[in-house]
Amino acid sequence: KGFSARQLLKASSSFYRHELEQKLRIQKHIKVLGGLFSGMLCSTSTLSSVLLAKYQGTYECEVQDLIIEWASDVDYFLDIGCAEGYYVNGMAYRFGIPSVGVDVNLAAKQLLLETAKANNLTDYVSFSDSIAAALSGKTGKILILVDVDGAEHDVLKEVFESLASALCGIPINIIFIIETDLAPNNKQNTPDLINFLVEHGALIQSIA
After folding, report:
1. Which of 84, 109, 140, 193 could be joined to 127 by an S-S link, Cβ 3.0–4.6 Å?
2. How far is CA 101 from the centre of its chain?
3. Phi and psi, residue 178, nearest 5°
């Protein structure tokens, strides 16, 4: 069809990845081979992500590096846009901290809790259908991962509103790791998110 060598390489590697993933999906859970969550059982039912990278432990290496940098002494972990719970279960598995997943796709709840049970993490892992409920009663230092495919601004607004109504002066330390994306106008939303965070008293530590 007139493809270049580069295009053929990309196409063939994609087909080969798909073939490998189909073999992995015969099992309900597989053990992560390396990376931050090495040894954890992860679900083979992924929601809009790449199974092979999770299996290898190379999934979103930049996010893993930021977690290593900031998660050593946090009291809670919250993943907004948690999908099947790779990070939620991973944080409980690696750091032994209470971890909560939030997602608009309710199929995520069953997958997340099944993986928690497979890893004996049911005392540490939970799912919430709202940000306000997930933050309710939480104090101390909280690490929040946000990956919501363009809805970051709305999610952050909801986080700050939930904190304002729930805490009433209780000291709390929030660390955000935010995967930015394209806004509805098809422009990168990083500058707008930075402005929003700074306006709400946040300090930008790094842009990875």
Report:
1. 109
2. 8
3. -120, 120
DSSP state letters, 53-104: HHHHT-TTHHHHHHHHHH-TT-SEEEEET-TTTHHHHHHHHHH---EEEE-S
Q: Give dist(CA 27, CA 154) in Å, integer.
A: 37
Residues 6+ apart with CB under 8 A from 174: 142, 144, 159, 163, 202
Q: Is 15 helix (H, G, I), strand (E, B) or coil?
A: helix
Tens of pLDDT along 54-106?
Answer: 999 999 999 999 999 999 899 999 999 999 999 999 999 999 999 999 999 98
From 112, 162, 154, 158, select the one nearest 136 (Cα to Cα).
162
Both tokens of 175, joined, read 């660390």
When pLDDT is cut at 50, 70 and 90, the band that residue 35 belongs to is very high
Q: Rounded to whole angstroms, how far apart are CA atoms 66 and 120?
A: 26
Count how many residues are written for the chain: 208
Residues 77-113: b if buried by 16+ CB within 10 A, e if exposed: bbbbbbbbbbbbbbbbbbbebbbbbbbeeeebbebbb
- pTM as predicted: 0.93
